[in-house]
Specification:
The longest helix is centred in the N-terminal third of the chain and has 27 residues. The chain has one domain: Cupredoxins -  blue copper proteins (Immunoglobulin-like), CATH 2.60.40. The chain is an all-alpha fold and 129 residues long. Helix content is 56%, strand content 0%. The chain binds heme C. Heme C (HEC) binds next to helix 3, helix 4 and helix 5. Heme C binds next to helix 3, helix 4 and helix 5.
Length: 129
């Protein structure tokens, strides 16, 4: 019976370590990025600047790495809820989450402002690997 007590500090240490690790991982990832992944936006969109690579075979879908340079948050909100079109074409899916999630998501998207040059450099880097 007493042998169990010897393991309690070790088990506590492992649990604490795992807990802190999970916490620090969460902090590294912006909330908007999490929402983007959770809503399967990644099934179509690559965001190279954020380390997201879509598995889709469709070639004509834009990488959103610099979407913040192109579009304002107000427009993105309307676009991904299908209230607005882009060059006459609506977005294929409507965002299904809450308004709060949508705001967080779009704030993150708007913060993506990798310049075309940086983007190409990164692309060449990853192509080399
Ligand atoms: C079924 C595939 C698909 C999914 C899933 C998808 N998109 Fe899109 N998205 C597209 C296509 C197609 C376009 C329009 C063509 C383009 O801009 O590449 C587009 C365009 C966009 C644009 C405009 C980009 C620009 O500069 O033209 C944004 C912003 C965007 N999507 C956000 C999202 C978000 C956020 C999600 C998740 C809620 C999402 N998309 C999920 C296919 C998809």
């Amino acid at each position: 019976m007493t042998i169990i007590y010897k393991f309690i500090p070790i088990i506590t240490a492992i649990i604490l370590f795992a807990g802190f690790r999970a916490l620090s991982l969460q902090e590294e990832e912006p909330a908007g990025k999490r929402i983007f992944i959770d809503n399967k936006c990644t099934s179509c969109h690559t965001v190279a600047a954020a380390g997201i690579t879509s598995k889709t075979k469709k070639k004509n879908i834009v990488d959103l790495s610099d979407v913040g340079n192109e579009l304002k948050s107000d427009f993105i909100i309307k676009f991904v809820t299908k209230q607005e079109k882009l060059e006459g074409v609506g977005h294929p899916i409507a965002f299904k989450g809450s308004e709060e999630e949508l705001n967080t998501l779009v704030k993150w998207l708007e913060s993506l402002k990798v310049t075309k040059e940086e983007h190409n450099e990164e692309k060449q880097e990853s192509d080399k690997k």
